[in-house]
Design a protein that fits this description.
Layout (H helix, E strand, L loop, with lengths): L28 E7 L4 H13 L4 E5 L10 H7 L3 H6 L1 E3 L2 H4 L5 E5 L10 E2 L1 H11 L3 E6 L8 H4 L4 E3 L12 H15 L17 H17 L11 H12 L3 H19 L4
Parallel strand pairs: 1-2, 1-6, 2-3, 4-6, 4-7, 5-7
């Protein structure tokens, strides 16, 4: 995270796809700006973090490697988000990266004595989404030094991710993932596929037939004494009532009872 000491490795690879293009369903254009990025892998991981949340406008300001967008480490860490890298651009100055931006958010670990108000992402981004700025940018500093004060001062707000007070170090891509998620949720999020309806429980007749089958099998394997059954079958009845097995599960249970009975009839060696 800009302003946060970050480690040099991103998380494990896992494909993430987004059905949306740049911007979002409210028409707000969103840009992620990385200043003086040192590690190629972080650029690829950042592209992946963006794409997962449906963003694709990435600008690099004076990165360490001029060819960082096409380096193999970058491509490997992008993990399916190479299209974000292909659309990304590198510029020499922050001024070039801010072209067209109407609201700029810095990302910091500690509040500055002077400068924009420091807020959590959730605190700031909800009202910002409702405000409807035409173009919003999130600014991240270098992995080693974070953001310069003069860059923070240009921003409308400084976003501080609430982390463990004893260890606030975030990898650059991890910080971007948090900001991208909070911004996406503020914009309305993505629809979550509906959970399929649970199969209906088997009817009482099917359950009774299965219990009779089990009772017969338990007698044949010697587990149930028909002369002194005690409360075994009523307890099993209650157990399966609580479990509410489906018709398919009843079929499985009857198959188990059948196998138990067949095994009991085989001569023991």
């Amino acid at each position: 995270m800009a302003g946060v000491p970050v480690d040099r490795e991103a998380g494990p690879s896992c494909p993430g796809e987004s059905p949306h293009r740049a911007g979002d369903n409210r028409g707000v254009q969103t840009r992620f700006i990385l200043i003086q990025t040192s590690h190629a892998g972080n650029v690829g991981a950042a592209a992946r973090a963006m794409k997962v949340m449906g963003f694709e406008d990435l600008v690099l300001v004076a990165p360490r490697w001029p060819d960082v967008l096409t380096r193999q480490e970058t491509l490997d860490r992008a993990s399916g988000a190479v299209d974000v890298l292909q659309r990304a651009r590198t510029v020499a100055t922050l001024d070039e990266a801010l072209d067209g931006v109407t609201h700029l958010c810095a990302t910091v670990m500690t509040a500055r004595d002077f400068g924009p108000p420091t807020r959590t992402p959730r605190e700031h981004l909800g009202p910002l989404a409702a405000q409807g700025d035409a173009s919003v940018a999130f600014l991240f500093g270098s992995e080693r030094y974070g953001m310069r004060n003069e860059d923070v001062y240009r921003c409308h707000a400084a976003l501080r991710i609430p982390t463990n007070p004893g260890y606030g170090s975030l990898n650059l891509a991890a910080a971007m993932q948090v900001i991208a998620y909070e911004w996406r949720m503020s914009l309305g999020g993505f629809d979550v596929p509906a959970t399929p309806a649970a199969p209906a429980a088997a009817d009482a007749q099917a359950l009774s037939g299965m219990l009779q089958h089990w009772e017969q099998a338990l007698v044949e394997i010697g587990f149930l004494d028909p002369a002194a059954p005690k409360k075994l079958m009523p307890r099993l009845n209650q157990l399966f009532n609580r479990a509410q097995p489906t018709a398919e599960e009843i079929h499985i249970l009857r198959g188990v009872a059948k196998s138990m009975a067949e095994a009991a009839k085989k001569p023991r060696l």
